[in-house]
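Fold this sequence, please.
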Amino acid sequence: MNVLYNLSIFIYSILIKLAAPFKLKADQISKGRQCVFAELTNNIKYDRPIIWVHCASLGEFEQGRPLIEAIKKQHSEYRIFLTFFSPSGYEIRKNYELADYICYLPADTKSNAQKLIELVKPEFVFFVKYEFWFHYIQELKKRNIPLYLVSAIFRENQLFFKNTPWGKWYCKMLLGFRHFFVQDEQSVKLLARIGINNVTKAGDTRFDRVAEIARNGKDIPLIEKFKGNNQLVVAGSTWKPDEELLVEYIHAHPEIKFVIAPHETKKGNIDRLISQLKTPIICYTEATNESVMNKQVFIIDTIGLLSSVYKYADLAYIGGGFGVGIHNTLEAAIFGMPIVFGPNYLRFNEATTMVKLGVANPINDYSGLKTILDSLLTDTGKRDKITTDCISFTQQNLGATTTIVSKVFNKPLISKSEKQV
């Protein structure tokens, strides 16, 4: 199995290089990986112990971020080494101020794992949610460096739980983790079924992150002025299939105001959206106190605002549900409002829970969108109940970061000096 795994890593690395001239993300990964070791060699310092946090992409970073911030606040004696697999994480957070070193994760080969770990010399390591890299895990285990998986969620259909050669091989990989901090009880039970009991049900650190965002969220006077006394739907991280449904509803309901924050903010995509709308619109980058008046649609054509925009909403639509999966629902839920999204939400534990609680509503087509929006925007009593239930749901799920930090730091860790005795 090791041979097949190594072959798959080799083939993937070759494909990335071949695709680099044609695909931006492939080019970013290829170039980013090339300079990792040189940059670390020139910049890394050993005056303080180092904690390594690895996130696949931006979504996982948002789960790792509360942990990094808690460590920096409570244990400032550590430096933070932050790695990403995907450009969508690295390119947006490469200047994150609380990390001392930020880079792409080199391909998971035995030599890369040995070289990176020897160079960084992490005191201990956090992988976020789904990250399972065989050679890095094996090398950390070999060196007796504690490795923790945080905000993890396991499902029955994952390879770890299948009685196949690949399943058994992947299952052994889990033995390299010192402890698992999982999101739900099902994950605890699944791991126990294969003999893994070093597990704590801590919850999802993203709840802590969105609560912090809500506490420190900025006021956006332009949005407040745009909304006025009207009802406002905020559609966040939308894609073309989401927007096609929303545009039809917008045209049919001129009395409702909409903020649309597309997932892709490049000019070509914004221009495509504008061309579909036959109603007065304004973009954030062109908005003034005067120009937002008498507009029905406000397009957020920049990044970094969405989490603060949600607080002005009466209802939130979360994009991505007609593609690979919905985007962050918790940024809206923390403000206590009804949430609507497309059908591909089942991989997201918080979304399935909110649907069961009745605070989130999945839709499959325009008819479903119209029915839900009409109901929620006209029934004040129903919206008030959802607000209460939604706030209760988010408040009950705070504290994962505290659980993780308390368990890791209050438990004696094996220091470098102790290892050498």
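The chain has two domains: 32-203+399-420, 218-396. The two ends are 35 Å apart (CA to CA).
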